[in-house]
Amino acid sequence: MLLDKFISLMKERNFDGALISPGTNLYYLTGIHIHEAGERLTVLVVSADGDYRLLAPSLYENVVRNFPVTFWRDGENPYDKLAWILAEFHLSGGRLLIEDTMRADWLINIFRVGNRGFEFYSLSSVIRELRMRKDHREIDYMKHAAKVVDRVFEELLSWDLLGMRERELALKIELAIRELSDGISFEPIVASGENAANPHHAPGDRRLRKGDLVILDYGAKWKGYCSDITRTIALGRPDERLVEIYEVVKEAQERAYRAVREGILAREVDGAVRETIAKAGYGEYFTHRTGHGLGLDVHEEPYIGPDGNVALENGMTFTIEPGIYVPGLGGVRIEDDVVVHDGKGKRLTRAERELIIV
Ligand SMILES: CSCC[C@H](N)C(=O)N1CCC[C@H]1C(=O)O
């Protein structure tokens, strides 16, 4: 079981315990998905001696089954119960891993329960070692999530895009993803015309018009695992400068993809992109990293940026998504999901990468 692997790793690194709140780490280790815990304390307590127990609100009595659990009811003080579990597990101090995204109010109360005897460390510093390397089951789920976004791309090319508002198109993409999968991995980005110069543009009221380049960035989830794709399409023939930019981004993406090999550092893949874009004279307009690890979270290790020190291994999955963004003109981004397989990169997303003019 993954929890056993995690406990061994925790011990190896001299940690005494871990407190894990709901999210992808809890799901990864236990298969338990807690929907909307909100302000009610929910935490998996793990000790390096091998003990573990979930403390959860009684609302989840029908969700958590066949797992050691203590429930608390509204009106009770969950921190008293947490203190009992910690005492039972002989966790009265020491080095404790804490879920990186834990709510600050929980953390403050946990700090009190622990009588300041704990030193806190971020859970991701240990669990990343496990999550970064995907097994066959995880990769199969990611392949499925990737197929969904490829299909949605084919489908959207047949829609009547001219005159549609960005936010309408984003909603249509979201619905198409939800039809075919377990849900979206993030809110779709639809960035048209000059809005495409903003890499994380929030789709708004702008209507798509002739001559626009439109960045479409969206993802699906399957069994918890994410895909993330970006394609840039043209509505009618765009400005020649944008066509040139498109070709530079396509070339940069291809070079980075071809650079992927077992043993290469993530920053070398990033370097392939940066060099291609800089040579074409657009270096200052590539304003983000080349990519990010992908799995249960849409952004996770290994990050593919200039500071990426992870040596790539078989089973690692990440995006390659260079972009060029010119304020006042627009932008282009092309993104694929890639797995390191048999020592080389293999694309999971396969939608057309040539410039499509609809
Ligand atoms: C989770 S929202 C952004 C999804 C997108 N595919 C993405 O990861 N990026 C867009 C610009 C750069 C990159 C990022 O690192 O945020």
From TrEMBL:
Domain annotation Peptidase M24: ranges: 141-341
Pfam assignment, any one: Creatinase_N
Record flagged with keyword Protease: yes
PROSITE patterns referenced in this protein's UniProt entry, alphabetically: PROLINE_PEPTIDASE
Membrane-crossing residue ranges in chain numbering: none
Keyword Lipid metabolism on entry: no
Protein family according to the UniProt entry: Belongs to the peptidase M24B family.
PANTHER family, A to Z: AMINOPEPTIDASE (PTHR46112), XAA-PRO AMINOPEPTIDASE (PTHR46112:SF9)
Name of protein: X-Pro aminopeptidase
Lineage of the species this protein comes from: Archaea, Methanobacteriati, Methanobacteriota, Thermococci, Thermococcales
